[in-house]
Specification:
The chain is an alpha/beta fold and 274 residues long. It folds into two domains: 31 residues, no CATH class; 192 residues, Rossmann fold, CATH 3.40.50. Helix content is 45%, strand content 14%.
């Protein structure tokens, strides 16, 4: 990290990240002459790759608190019990195997199902870490949403005055996304519309099953305890590695660590100013 106030150079050689590339005007495409004809090529400034990555991140819609999580900084030692640490270590090995063999997993539509009864056990954090690995390292399109968000988005399409997309288009979008991550699966509380929920998730999951699209789930329930129709759970069972997580909440521990890091940073700043 540079000193406070230090100016950073962009790849176009300018002194501000707000400057416009003289070659592509920040579009990512540069006009060149090719055999007497005007042609567009990827700009030398690297803006095309940056824009593409930004689009992937925007599309993924990861929760802001998890946008920088990585498998490499997923700290197993944060769990108090040795049993929990062992369980997460095993989970990490399975996930690393899955990522290492991603081409084969995609070819067969094999995803992941992370579960534990305990809330705050690290399932969402791990799913977000996997998403970032896929986006940054594998350059793959990922979509992240809770199951409740998906249902609410479907309902929102019913208001034709406010909705920017039809229900059919939204369902198709969720069905064809390269890798879909559904967080908190099975946590919806809609007793009066269970059949409707079953139908919607069956439509999405069945399409992804038939087209061998990878889906990653997190849940507070083992697969055999989900309240969905068997059509849904059987397909998930066939096309995922089921990975148990510890029955231990780590949110409070992470909150304390964040507070200690903040206090440490404030003290270092005070010492530098002194």
């Amino acid at each position: 990290m540079g000193e406070v106030g230090e100016m950073k150079l962009s790849r176009c050689g300018k002194n501000s990240t707000n400057d416009i590339c003289p070659f592509c005007k920040n579009t990512g495409w540069e006009d060149v002459d090719y055999k007497g004809q005007k042609a567009s090529v990827e700009c030398r400034c690297g803006m095309f790759k940056k824009n593409r990555m930004n689009n992937r991140l925007k599309f993924a819609a990861l929760p802001e608190s998890f946008q920088n999580t990585k498998l490499s900084n997923f700290d197993i030692s944060i769990y108090k019990s040795k049993e929990s640490q062992k369980k997460v270590s095993t989970a990490m090995k399975v996930i690393e195997y899955w990522l290492k063999n991603l081409d084969a997993m995609k070819e067969n539509g094999i995803g992941l199902y992370l579960y534990s009864y305990a809330k705050g056990s690290g399932k969402t954090r791990m799913a977000a870490s996997i998403a970032n690995e896929l986006i940054y390292e594998k350059k793959i399109q990922v979509k992240f949403a809770t199951s409740l968000q998906i249902l609410n988005e479907i309902k929102a399409t019913w208001n034709k005055n406010d909705s920017l997309i039809s229900e059919n288009k939204l369902m198709h979008f969720l069905s064809i996304t390269e890798i879909l991550i559904i967080d908190d699966f099975g946590m919806e509380k809609h007793k009066d519309c269970k059949d409707w929920i079953d139908d919607k998730f069956n439509d999405i999951i069945n399409y992804r099953y038939n087209s061998k699209k990878v889906t990653i789930f997190t849940s507070n329930l083992p697969l055999d305890q989900l309240k969905y129709d068997d059509r849904i759970t059987n397909r998930i069972m066939e096309r995922t590695f089921q990975i148990p997580f510890p029955e231990e909440c780590i949110r409070e521990i992470i909150a304390k660590q964040n507070m200690m890091e903040l206090i440490g940073a404030m003290r270092r700043e005070e010492n530098n100013c002194g």
